From TrEMBL:
InterPro entries: FldB/FldC_alpha/beta. Belongs to the FldB/FldC dehydratase alpha/beta subunit family. Gene3D superfamilies: 3.40.50.11890, 3.40.50.11900. Pfam families: HGD-D. PANTHER family: 2-HYDROXYACYL-COA DEHYDRATASE (PTHR30548:SF3), 2-HYDROXYGLUTARYL-COA DEHYDRATASE, D-COMPONENT-RELATED (PTHR30548). One of its GO terms (molecular function) is hydro-lyase activity. Keywords: Iron, Iron-sulfur, Metal-binding. This is Benzoyl-CoA reductase/2-hydroxyglutaryl-CoA dehydratase subunit, BcrC/BadD/HgdB. Its cofactor is [4Fe-4S] cluster. It comes from Caloramator fervidus. Coiled coil: none annotated.
Length: 329
């Protein structure tokens, strides 16, 4: 049985219930014909002045005949509430999940317990699955470490961490892929770059960003949200409740910034690329981000294209030139 998700949710519950989990975001953005998913949504009445991700998720769901979906109605995109209503009208069964507005362990526990009850599984089954998934999370954490050593590329860091949102729908198969990839990366010689960059914000539509910056003696060695999808603190928590309590993405910007600042310092980051999606409320976060981070921040915006446009390339190149001047060595 397949079940779609609109963003990272407690997939431990879904796998314990016997589902094959499919992140609709990943189906959308990895498709060679990704624009068709947007066109499906617009044909069905979604406005052009709406985030491409929401339209892509809708199109991916309809086109791939996904009959059940977990929709995150609190703690992610504010448009998801409307999206799930449209999906319901198409006969798709919706399971709502909310990251609590009040960020306390008790509130997180209530939300996850409600999710567990929706799927009629036990806490023991969920923890058993969590322990298995942690094998993959440990491997992703190693890829993250190897990125800091300039052995893994920024794109590999992005790809293998973001894929843990659903384990590519095949837990055992994806864990094997990760094992092979870690061994391959370990045997490489480091390709050290002058500039160490951080990427923060929602995962990009423009996957060519990573290769582009590497052409200017720079590399992204920290992907904020992708790293959170991989639950890097999996080995410091005692259960699923703590795991999702310490997950930063769905909670306040200030909570996210605590972890971002920590990673910027630990990784000795020279500059930050903050990606936002057109028509998304999160673009307003850039005001606070730039005022609180102690390193230069460049905000870039994506819309429908899955590659960087000429204007954005020029802005990134100018930003990297400025960082090299500031570094001065």
């Amino acid at each position: 049985m397949k079940i779609g998700i609109t963003t990272t949710v407690p997939i431990e519950v879904l796998y314990a219930a016997g589902y094959q989990v499919v992140d609709l975001n990943n189906i959308f953005i990895s498709s060679k014909d990704y624009l068709r998913y947007i066109e499906i949504a617009e044909r069905d009445g979604f406005p052009k002045s709406l985030c491409a991700w929401i339209k892509g998720i809708y199109g991916a769901c309809i086109e791939n005949n996904i009959k059940e979906v977990v929709g995150v109605i609190e703690g992610d995109c504010s448009n998801t509430k409307a999206l799930v209503e449209v999906l319901k009208s198409k006969g798709i069964k919706i399971y709502p999940f909310s990251y609590p507005t009040k960020h306390t362990l008790d509130e997180v526990k209530k939300s996850i317990d409600d999710f567990i009850n929706q799927f009629n599984v036990s806490k023991q089954e969920v923890e058993r699955v969590r322990n298995k998934l942690n094998i993959g999370r440990k491997l992703a954490k190693e890829i993250d470490r190897l990125t800091v050593e300039f052995k893994a590329t920024g794109f590999e860091n992005h790809l293998y961490q973001i894929s843990l949102s659903d384990f590519n729908g095949d837990v055992d198969g994806f864990i094997n892929i990760l094992k092979q990839k870690v061994e391959e990366i370990k045997n490489r010689k480091p390709k050290v770059k002058k500039l160490k960059l951080a990427y923060i914000g929602v995962p990009p539509m423009t996957g060519d960003l990573y290769d582009f910056v590497e052409g200017f003696d720079a590399q992204i060695i920290y992907n904020e949200v992708q790293r959170e999808f991989a639950f890097p603190r999996f080995d410091m928590v005692k259960d699923i409740y703590e795991q999702y309590y310490y997950y930063t993405y769905p909670y306040s910007l200030q909570y996210r910034l605590e972890e971002i600042k920590k990673q910027l310092k630990e990784r000795d980051i020279d500059g930050v690329i903050h990606y936002t999606q057109a028509f998304c409320y999160r673009a307003i976060d850039d005001i606070i981000i730039k005022s609180q981070l102690e390193v230069p921040v460049l905000n870039i915006e994506g819309d429908k294209l899955n590659c960087l446009d000429a204007r954005t390339k020029i802005r990134i190149e100018a930003f990297l030139d400025m960082l090299k001047d500031l570094k001065g060595d």
